[in-house]
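Follow-up to my post from last week.
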Amino acid sequence: MSDITITERQAGDVTILDLAGKVTIGEGSVALRTAIRRLLGEGKNKLLLNLGGVGYIDSSGIGELVSSFTAVKKEGGTLKLLKLTQKIQDLLAITKLLTVFDVFDEESEALSSYN
Amino acid sequence: MIREIQLPSRIESVDQAAVEADDFAKSCGFGDDFVSAIDLAIRESVANAVKHGNKFDESKSVDVTFADSDEGFEVTVRDHGAGFDVDEIPDPTNPENLLKANGRGILFMNSFMDEVSWSNHSDGGMVVKMLKKK
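User reply:
Got it. Predicted complex:
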């Protein structure tokens, strides 16, 4: 069974990825990378990652969030984060990445920010 | 009480080490919150040993020791790689390093454990010793 499930949905021109499971070294990080690269290949570059269902993330997963952020930015797009768990919020604070990512608790608020 | 395990240099060993740590810590009477606190540090240290130490060479093991001491929960992780100078690892929280994909594992180990020390083993490889106080 896969460590992570990634479900894609569209809200206007924003693509939302609902992540559930673990974003860790190996399969979880690779799955996220593959999904982001595929969306960029399809010309979708307004991305919102919903991390509310992510029960576990490690430094590799955090690194993958950063790689995704820079890859999307390079394509002229924006990647934002939605519904951080307390653990992920703590890890982003420790790594000072809360200063890098736009983070939202509410999906409607996140979607409005792309306009 | 001490438990020693030898793990192959592959990604699956990261999960295996965490499961063993969980089992050992609980058998020593440590609670869920304590185990949760040490979990990420153990995963990061074993991942470092597999990836950067042994460079996924499955002929080289990752040697892990858990010990329940008077001070707390001690973890030792040894690889059989070429070693490195931990002081040369860039600080991932420096602004110029924030967008780098790698280099945060040691930060997490230092954040979640009370003591972390690195040394070169006399027979080769790096050894990291970590302590989470009771």
